[in-house]
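Consider the tokenized backbone below.
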């Protein structure tokens, strides 16, 4: 059984990948912060779509609908209230870490994923409405999202770049971050209480890669269940090379931490806390839902093998994947498109739900 002290020794921050009003009002989130060493929280349209089906939202939804609020206005009002409540609970972690931890993420509308200007505008508007220093505006790491996120950072808004699947796209995210922060330094603007994370997705990689491998001859199946972690390790290698180098440290800019997202297993054949165990890496963040966190603390086994050896094995894995005939780059492109589409469907679904009381 893992303890909070074990988590501290890993040098990793744990964030909760869920938000629901009762978690705030009944004390559950407060207990999670203590019992599981949680120091942050992430949300997305899929999380809100599930949450708003809960009965305790019925009254607030009905009141807002009666006041002629649109479905978009109802959702934003409820989401902002919940984000504020979570941010207030996490403010002590934010203060204690000097603005490194204690953040709550709120995502801009996924409908804007290909519109840099409107993503930037929405990010500014949402940040002003939430009005909490430990808010992170979440933007997809599309090419347009990178432009918007860089502008938000220049404006002093903390940013969570999400839906990152490839090491190449991750590199572009780090460039957007360092570009924005260097600009602030050149313009004598403060860096305090300004942070960013790069949300690198894990389990969805295995879902797609395993499906591709299952269609190949039997020998290739030995590679199943390893691609998501291997991909993450190569991203972590780049993270360390960029942000732990003497040259970067000399700039005085804080590192943009890499965050492991989508870390609950999708295949029941794998250990429930597999991705948490394998990616308990110093300086990173892992955001996970309650079931993965519970399994991790109950019987998690932190992988303490040297990172260098694991990264070397990851590179061999991708060589074998290519030799087996898997087009990994094409797979990653599809995952980004599918990820945006999934969040769009969730957003459309929650708006349709909220439109029904007014019908």
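A designed sequence for it:
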């Amino acid at each position: 059984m893992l303890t909070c002290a074990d988590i501290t020794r890993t040098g990793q921050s744990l964030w909760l990948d869920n938000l629901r009003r009762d978690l705030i009002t009944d004390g559950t989130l407060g207990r999670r912060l203590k019992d599981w060493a949680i120091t942050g929280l992430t949300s997305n349209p899929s999380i809100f779509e599930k949450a708003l089906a809960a009965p305790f939202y019925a009254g607030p939804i009905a009141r807002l609908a009666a006041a002629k609020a649109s479905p978009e206005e109802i959702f934003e009002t409820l989401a902002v209230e919940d984000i504020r409540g979570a941010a207030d609970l996490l403010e002590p972690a934010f203060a204690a870490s000097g603005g490194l931890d204690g953040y709550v993420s709120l995502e801009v509308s996924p409908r804007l994923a290909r519109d840099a200007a409107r993503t930037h505008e929405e990010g500014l508007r949402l940040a002003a409405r939430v009005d909490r220093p430990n808010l992170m505006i979440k933007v997809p790491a599309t090419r347009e999202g990178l432009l918007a996120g860089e502008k938000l950072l220049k404006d002093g808004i903390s940013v969570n770049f999400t839906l990152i699947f490839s090491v190449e796209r991750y590199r572009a995210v780090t460039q957007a971050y360092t570009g924005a922060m260097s600009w602030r330094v050149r313009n004598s603007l403060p860096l305090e209480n300004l942070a960013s994370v790069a949300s690198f997705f894990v389990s969805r990689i295995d879902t797609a890669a395993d499906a591709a491998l299952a269609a190949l001859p039997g020998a290739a199946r030995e590679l199943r269940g390893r691609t998501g972690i291997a991909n993450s390790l190569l991203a972590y290698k780049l993270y360390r090379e960029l942000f732990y180098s003497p040259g970067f440290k000399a700039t005085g800019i804080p590192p943009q931490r890499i965050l492991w997202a989508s870390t609950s297993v999708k295949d029941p054949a794998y250990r429930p806390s597999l991705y948490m165990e394998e990616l308990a890496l110093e300086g990173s963040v892992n955001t996970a839902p309650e079931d993965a966190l519970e399994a991790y603390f109950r019987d998690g086994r932190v992988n303490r093998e040297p990172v260098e050896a694991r990264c070397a094995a990851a590179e061999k894995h991708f060589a074998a994947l290519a030799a087996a005939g898997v087009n990994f780059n094409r797979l990653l492109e599809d995952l980004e498109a599918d990820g945006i589409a999934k969040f769009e469907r969730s957003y459309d679904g929650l708006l349709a739900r909220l439109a029904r009381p007014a019908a």
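The first helix runs from residue 4 to 10.
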